[in-house]
# Entry
Amino acid sequence: MIDGDERELELELARLQQEHRDLDAAIDALHQSPAPDLLRLQRLKKRKLQLRDRIAFIEDQITPDIIA
# Structure
């Protein structure tokens, strides 16, 4: 992989990980509210799962395959 491409992936990975942490905090805060908006909660959780999948994909792209 070209160094520039790998650097771009690492930057995107860091951004996605931060967004994932932010969503986690937002979900926790919404759970703590007296009357949580269940639709919003569901949408946040769905977005968080999408981010997790994208993060896993990028990590696989960055980490070289090891042939055993």
About this structure: Residues 31 and 41 are 8 Å apart (CA to CA). DSSP finds two helices and no strands in the chain.
